[in-house]
Write a structure and sequence with these properties.
Pfam families: APH (PF01636). The protein folds into two domains: 89 residues, Phosphorylase Kinase, domain 1, CATH 3.30.200.20; 243 residues, Aminoglycoside phosphotransferase (APH), C-terminal lobe (Aminoglycoside 3'-phosphotransferase, Chain: A, domain 2, Alpha-Beta Complex), CATH 3.90.1200. It contains eleven helices and nine strands. The termini are far apart. It has 357 residues and is an alpha+beta fold. The strands form three sheets. Strands 1-2-3-5-4 form a five-stranded antiparallel beta sheet, covered by helices on one side. Strands 6-9 form a two-stranded antiparallel sheet. The longest helix is centred in the last third of the chain and has 30 residues. 44% of the residues lie in helices and 12% in strands. Helix 5 packs antiparallel against helix 6. The radius of gyration is 21 Å and the shape is globular.
Length: 357
């Protein structure tokens, strides 16, 4: 049986009409609608208000986005007591979800106060530790998630070669250069992919975009539920270091080295990894591998957002991303990758024509 083709995209007026019909069916037909935000995807968000009730509308055109993963991951997170937004109504065919409104207390502005930063980041780390107690070995529902496998991680590296390299040099990366780069990464990725690590039963739900811009402070809620979660639809089954890296090695804002070290120790203590030993060493190597892989992917994604989608503001983050990548590449396990960058993309070669360095 052939798969059904996605419906053709609706015109802007038809999309608005479909949105209004969805809200009517959900009992929100009289709601006031105000734009809330967009993100690096094709999704957009509106805040809707009807009387004293409020909600958030996710608009994900089905020819560009699939809301099914969001619904699956939202359910998994809520099933273990975390504050993913409740789903009030959904239409997978049209790409609309009406969500609980978690408010506006994003971590990014709150963390400008350094005392508050330490408090809320500690809560986020505690959330990860609590989530990671639910491993693939003990929670069969996690098997519904795609694996954080070699193909997925390599795709992120390909994004860098496909977008950043041509922007820097005006030509595609050669087949030999690409092969050399990916060959240097292959043994590193083998050490962190699901099922191939010494402790595959520790594979966990990895949200992949766990950072300050996607976290909301909900101090009235108990324990780890104080951290509201956004933008987790790309979740996979993978390594517990990935989201910790995403939180503490954040291209959008600085987390001081001292605070990051204390938060890493807090996570490792909660995870039962002692100050020394092979388990901790493997975790720290994985942390460095993901720090480098993420930032390489991000470099490519930010250039793609600039060139393909006209979102030039992401170029402002490139210098910070390079600095974080260079820091990760100091880890001895990443020496082969560091040597590739030294040979092909040293700092003097990183400036983009019409963009940022």
């Amino acid at each position: 049986m052939s798969e059904a083709m996605p419906a053709p995209p609706l015109s802007a007026p038809d999309r608005i009409a479909a949105r209004n019909a969805f809200l009517e069916r959900a009992g929100w037909g009289a709601a006031e609608i105000r734009p809330l935000a967009g993100d690096a995807s094709f999704r957009r968000y509106d805040r809707v208000r009807q009387g004293t009730s409020g909600a958030v509308l996710m608009d994900a055109p089905p020819d560009r986005e699939d809301i099914a993963p969001f619904l699956t991951v939202d359910s998994l997170l809520r099933s273990v007591g975390l504050s993913a937004p409740a789903v009030l109504a959904a239409d997978a065919e049209l790409g609309f979800i009406l969500l609980e409104d978690l408010g506006d207390s994003l971590f990014t502005p709150l963390a400008q106060d350094r005392e508050r930063e330490a408090e809320i980041y500690a809560a986020a780390v505690d959330l990860l530790a609590a989530l990671h107690r639910h491993t693939a070995a003990g929670m069969p529902a996690l098997a519904a998630l795609p694996p954080q496998d070699h193909a997925l991680l390599t795709a992120g590296l390909d994004t860098f070669l496909d977008w950043y390299w041509p922007a820097a040099f005006g030509r595609a990366a050669s087949a030999d250069l690409r092969r050399d780069f990916l060959d240097r990464w292959a043994p590193l990725l083998e050490t962190v992919r699901p099922g191939d690590r010494p402790d595959p039963g520790r594979d966990v739900l990895v949200m992949r975009d766990f950072h300050a811009d996607n976290l909301i402070w909900l101090p009235e809620r108990p324990g780890v539920a104080r951290v509201g979660l956004l933008d987790f639809q790309d979740a996979v089954l993978g390594h517990p270091a990935y989201d910790l890296v995403s939180l503490l090695d954040d291209v959008r804002r600085d987390v001081t080295a001292d605070l990051a070290a204390r938060l890493c120790d807090r996570y490792l203590a909660a995870a039962g990894l002692h100050a020394q030993g092979p388990e901790r060493s493997r975790f720290e190597t994985g942390y460095a591998i993901f720090g480098a892989q993420r930032n390489i992917r991000i470099l490519g994604v930010f250039v793609r957002l600039w060139q393909r989608d006209g979102k030039a503001r992401y170029l402002d983050y490139l210098p910070r991303t390079w600095a974080m990548l260079d820091r990760s590449l100091r880890q001895p396990a990443l020496t082969p990758v560091a040597e590739w960058f030294a040979a092909h993309l040293p700092p003097a070669a990183r400036r983009l024509e019409g963009g940022a360095s």
